[in-house]
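Quick illustration, no need to memorize.
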Amino acid sequence: MYNQGVIPLAARPLADRRARMVWALCSVAPAIFLLCLFALTLLSAPEHDDFCFAELYARHGFVHTVSHFYHSQSGRVLALWLTQVPPAISAATGVSLLSAYSATMAANAGLFLAATALAMVRAWPRTGALQLSFLTLAFASAVVGAAPSVRDLLYWLSSVTCYVPSALITILILGECIRALDGQTGFSWLLTLSMALSGFAAALGNEFTGPWLLLIVSVSLGARHLFGQPRQIVQHTLIAAAIAVAWIIVVSASGNSARMEQLPNSGHMIWSIFQALLDSLDGLGRFLREPAIVVWLAAVGLIALVEPDPAPQAPQKSKALALGTIAICLACCYFVYFAHRYATGMRLVERAQNPALILLLFGSTLGVKLFVGAYRPQLRERFAAGMFRGLLGPVGMPASLTLLTVASLCLSSTAFQLRAQWQGLYPYWRESAERHAVLTTSPEPVIVIPRHKWTPPLLMTADVTANADRLPNDCIARYYHKSAVYAADTSR
């Protein structure tokens, strides 16, 4: 008989009002954290590449703009398409590009949270609504709190479209593969079609998501054979074929070779293999040092420990799935470090580290859940006999998670940035609005605009320069129908 403090949730469904209240309060801290950061999307403003997309869309529309960038710079068709959404909204509604851009970034933040909720619901089918609310908000806040670049995750459209949708689709497909293996179920034809179409879209986002997804699908097929489950070769082949076609479209773009020719350190295979190993180990170290990630994984283990017991199955299978899931995610993360080193000769940029973080955190979540599930009876007995038996009580566990979550989010990298830059966020947006008003209303063909006095890195990285023929000045001038745009020196 288990101690009362460690009775699983199925046997004590939170009928106690205090337990429900504490579980509800458990979600408040991550909800507030996310609300503050999501609200800042309303202060985001277009810069450099965004004006190039807006100008080309205004002149030629979606298809020509995608074709232009595909043949000159990049094969990331999904990103090329989505980055034109703000100018399309502006043209269709008559609102300013600044307002359309902010609205688009706010919608992206909402979709990010919605995809996270779907991933949690599918990964935790036997968990109650209050726990699912906490899991959704806590996972999203852990991603945002530990993100290598919050700006590229939430506030700069050109980066968001390249990486975030693809990463979210990847974790959803990974979750479905692990769910089917763990529950010994198959892919329905509706699910297969959804995974094929979403995988196709994700692989169009960037050069490395396609290989990620192909690895996940191929390992899923191999694991089914290993565990003696129906292999569903046709379903797996259909999903993999859709992903492969999209990936070929991306890597076949003539703009890719043109870009590599401009980077003299690219194309060194052996050097890239070893350097990527060092880069990825450094990234893994930062991942494991983030307070928000450590607390999140601890919360996953506790909730997995008290969730309702599934049908009995071999612990060895759960352990193999856990190890395999984490291994796949580590391999995918190494691949993106290697691919970037090989293609550019440089260390992986922070905006491309964001999807690696999302995948590794979700894979670690599944791994911890599966490991705890494999040892659940033994762990419950240890907690029942130990000094921490109250930690799994109906009130003790959510209360403990609340305190730990608050502390971890306050100590997260993003929280430190937010506190350091808070005063400059709204003034930066106000300067952006004033600049837009001048560019829109001035009849002069040549405009001199002041540089930003407030430059919070959360919302911006580059400003106009003194060179009217270089990015971003040239794209800004063309979008606002000016002959030239120059930066005026301003006192700091």
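Confidence is low (pLDDT under 50) at residues 1-11.
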